[in-house]
Amino acid sequence: MADRVCVGAIAGSFGVKGEVRLKSFCAEPEDIATYGPLSSEDGAASWEVRLTRPVKAGFAARLTGVATKEAADALRGTRLYAPRDRLPALPDDEFYHADLIGLTVVDTGGAELGRVKAVLNHGAGDLLEVAGKGLKQPVLLPFTKAAVPTVDLTAGRIVADPPEGLFE
Amino acid sequence: MSRSVWKGPFVDSYVLKKAEKSRESGRNEVIKIWSRRSTILPQFVGLTFGVYNGQKHIPVNVTEDMIGQKFGEYSPTRTYYGHAADKKAKRK
């Protein structure tokens, strides 16, 4: 499980008073402000975020320590990371995509099938995209109790009981 | 009576046959179909279809609230991953 999660990015400055244009990657875009302080990719800098108003394709926001347009411009392209433990706890059978991505998928016999590459949802339930060396192309595994009986985040693995013909 | 009512929903006949065969066998399998235009019928509830999107078969678990829509609606032909961030997945 990753200890930090990318929750947004700085798209540049907004106005001339040191505000930044913020892109949020969160399910509820406004939630990005609640996960602060947010840090840069290398962890060297961190900022508290205050959203001032919604703007086209994001938010105008103030970051602590950024007071001028030049300082805001210098942050353009910076990805913002939140500590994983700032995300609220979830009920049983609900998982963050960030926690599922990268888990090893094994079958009920213990043989490795691949790793979770992405979590998708096209309207008919969540799907795990599993990619592995033995697979020609990634396989989509329905994220149901029948197909995925066990999710062990601490061990970093998922036990899958896929429907017939899925991993062929 | 309007034309759409007396004609009934459209379903490719092979989809009906495959669904019936799968239900009779009781096996846990993905029913591969290429018919994105077929309507989802009440007898499909509980089955898993692999709906072709031009590249691969996307698994679609049919539930009651999907009745009346087309299979193609649940199998997008374009890929967009986006960012994981704080997005959640629920195991049903």
From TrEMBL, chain A:
GO cellular component terms attached to this protein's record: cytoplasm; ribosome
UniProt keywords, alphabetically: Chaperone, Cytoplasm, Ribosome biogenesis, rRNA processing
A GO term, aspect molecular function: ribosome binding
Highest taxon listed in the record's lineage: Bacteria
Residue ranges of domain RimM N-terminal in the record: 6-85
Residues covered by the Ribosome maturation factor RimM PRC barrel domain: 98-166
Biological-process GO terms, alphabetical: ribosomal small subunit biogenesis; rRNA processing
Compartments reported by the entry: Cytoplasm
InterPro entries: PRC_barrel-like_sf (IPR011033), PRC_RimM (IPR056792), RimM (IPR011961), RimM_N (IPR002676), RimM_N_sf (IPR036976), Transl_B-barrel_sf (IPR009000)
Domain notes: The PRC barrel domain binds ribosomal protein uS19.
Protein purpose: An accessory protein needed during the final step in the assembly of 30S ribosomal subunit, possibly for assembly of the head region. Essential for efficient processing of 16S rRNA. May be needed both before and after RbfA during the maturation of 16S rRNA. It has affinity for free ribosomal 30S subunits but not for 70S ribosomes.
Similarity section: Belongs to the RimM family.
Description of how the protein assembles with itself and partners: Binds ribosomal protein uS19.
Designated name of the protein: Ribosome maturation factor RimM
Organism of origin: Kangsaoukella pontilimi
Automatic annotation (TrEMBL), chain B:
Keyword Nucleus: no
The keyword Ribosomal protein is annotated on this UniProt entry: yes
Coiled-coil stretches noted in the UniProt entry, renumbered to this chain: none
Recorded family membership: Belongs to the universal ribosomal protein uS19 family.
HAMAP family membership: Ribosomal_uS19
Name the record gives this protein: Small ribosomal subunit protein uS19
Alphabetical list of PROSITE patterns matching this protein: RIBOSOMAL_S19
Species the sequence originates in: Kangsaoukella pontilimi
Highest taxon, organism lineage: Bacteria
Gene Ontology CC entries for this record: cytoplasm; small ribosomal subunit
GO process annotations (BP): ribosomal small subunit assembly; translation
Gene Ontology MF annotations: rRNA binding; structural constituent of ribosome
Entry keywords, A to Z: Ribonucleoprotein, Ribosomal protein, RNA-binding, rRNA-binding
PANTHER family to which the protein is assigned, alphabetical: RIBOSOMAL PROTEIN S19P FAMILY MEMBER, SMALL RIBOSOMAL SUBUNIT PROTEIN US19M
Job description of the protein: Protein S19 forms a complex with S13 that binds strongly to the 16S ribosomal RNA.
